[in-house]
Write a structure and sequence with these properties.
This protein has about 425 residues and is an alpha/beta fold. It has helices at about 20-30, 50-60, 90, 100-110, 130-135, 170-180, 195-205, 235-250, 265-275, 310-320, 340-345, 375-385, 395-400, 405-410, and strands spanning about 5, 10-15, 40, 65-70, 70-80, 85, 110-115, 140-145, 145-150, 160, 185-190, 210, 220, 230, 250-255, 275-280, 285-290, 300, 325-330, 350, 355-360, 370, 390-395, 415-420. It has 2 domains: about 5-20 and about 235-420, Alpha-beta prism (UDP-n-acetylglucosamine1-carboxyvinyl-transferase, Chain), CATH 3.65.10; about 20-230, Enolpyruvate transferase domain (UDP-n-acetylglucosamine1-carboxyvinyl-transferase, Chain, Alpha-beta prism). It is built from 14 helices and 24 strands. α8 packs parallel to α10.
Length: about 425
């Protein structure tokens, strides 16, 4: 199993290109099932999650071709015919988002058998909202032996869907199913994330009639069929935010390229509070820090609030702040699993319920740490950039799910970071 070793203390100077958004790419890949024509996705990240979903799509009959194009990495997806509507447990359990193939399969074929997704270390994220939305659209749902059996032999029908609470996954899932439904669907209390707008705009480019995306009410006028399109994946705001925090943690001056600054504006405002100089360009953000880190309180919230996916990274920064900061997590339970690992580096953090009090320390010290999830693994790398000595992050397969060439991008800016392959020995802590 691969590990990442970081020798801390080197400031970062240079440019970091931001990849296409994982959370958008995997939904756009699922949406390609809705048409028999080719869908070309540009600015595509090459990640463990996109590879996994690609394996699942090929089971349904999707032909996938990866290449290098004018806009960087491309993926061509073509499903002329759905040859199977069965999504087995061994694939779905590895990534929750793969469950979102259920809606497109029903919409295209009228039936599907999809495994329930596996558990999640950052809290129970049930799919009840997904299934209730599909039932509202006319799908008949049965569940037994860990599988969802869905049927809509006469097609889906437009409906009014009110989500009891904001859910990104359920919003996206219902949207993909509704575009081929008969009649109009009105969805209320929707999530407003930029990735949802990216999906909606891609669907419109394929011939769908979606309006209201980016607001809490989305209206979908069903169409008989969709056609292919070329679509550039939106930049990954979580990756951008992660590198912004890394620049703040290590010190120096880092410029993010291929980014939309407005998507991480709240994080950037918090970094200014923490003592950073921020310059926002059209598609660039420059982060500079030469002085002390100041304590900043943060409360996570749905978009456009402070992203829960940046909470762990920002907590790492606060471990070296000159005072106490309070981090409140309102989105997921169990999302402080990185706290004990930061403690191994010398951080002073006290957790009570959904609140973490971070008492800044003079320095962090390198140690062996264990990644517990995708964002936690990034937080440990960030902490390692500033820790004295060497930090080794284990279980970096979590990191590979959502970050493309992280060690390469950081190395190019002067970080002393390397990947240790699974068969290489590593020194244990004394």
């Amino acid at each position: 199993m691969d590990r990442i070793a970081i020798e801390g203390g080197s400031p970062l100077f240079g440019d970091i290109p931001v990849s296409g958004a994982k959370n958008s790419a995997i939904k756009l890949m699922a949406a390609s099932l809705l048409t028999s024509e080719p869908v070309r996705l540009t600015n595509m990240p090459r990640l463990a999650d996109t590879r996994l979903l690609g394996r699942l799509l090929t089971r349904f009959g999707t032909q996938i071709t990866e290449s290098q194009g004018a806009d960087g990495q491309e993926t061509l997806l073509h499903t002329p015919e759905i040859t199977s509507a069965f999504a087995p447990y061994d694939l779905v359990r590895q990534m929750r988002a793969s469950f979102n193939v259920l809606g497109p399969l029903i919409a295209r074929t009228g039936h599907a058998k999809v495994s329930l997704p596996g558990g999640c270390t950052i809290g129970a994220r049930p799919v009840d909202l997904h299934l209730k939305a599909l039932e509202a659209l006319g799908a008949h749902i049965d569940m037994h032996e860990g599988y969802v059996f869905a049927q809509a032999p006469r097609g889906l029908k437009g409906a009014e869907i009110e989500f009891p609470f904001v859910s990104v996954g359920a919003t996206e899932h219902a949207l993909m199913a509704a575009v081929l439904a008969h009649g109009t669907t009105v969805m209320t209390n929707c999530a407003c994330e930029p990735e949802i707008s990216d999906l909606a705009e891609c669907l419109n480019a394929m011939g769908a009639k979606v309006s209201g995306h980016g607001t809490t009410t989305i209206v979908v006028e069903g169409v008989a069929s969709l056609h292919g399109t070329d679509w550039s994946v939106i930049c990954d705001r979580i990756e951008a935010g992660t590198y912004a925090v890394a620049g703040a943690m290590a010190g120096g001056e880092v410029r993010l390229t291929k980014v939309r600054p407005e998507l991480i504006s709240i994080l950037l405002d918090k970094l200014v509070e923490a003592g950073c100089e921020i310059h926002r360009g059209f598609d660039t953000v420059t982060i500079k820090r030469s002085g002390a880190i100041r304590p900043v309180d943060v409360t996570t919230d749905v978009y456009p609030g402070f992203a829960t996916d940046l909470q762990a990274q920002f907590m790492a920064l606060m471990t070296l702040a000159g005072g106490e900061s309070v981090i409140r997590e309102t989105i997921f339970e169990n999302r402080f699993m990185h706290v004990p690992e930061l403690g191994r580096l010398g951080a002073d953090i006290r957790v009570t319920g959904s609140e973490a009090r971070v008492h800044g320390v003079a320095e962090l010290r390198g140690a062996q740490v264990m990644a517990t999830d995708l964002r936690a693994s990034a937080c440990l790398v960030i902490a390692g950039l500033a820790a004295r000595g060497e930090t080794t992050v284990n279980r970096v397969y979590h990191l590979d799910r959502g970050f493309e060439n992280l060690e390469g991008k950081l190395s190019a800016c002067g970080a002393k970071i390397r990947r240790i392959k699974g068969d290489e020995p590593v020194m244990e802590d004394e």
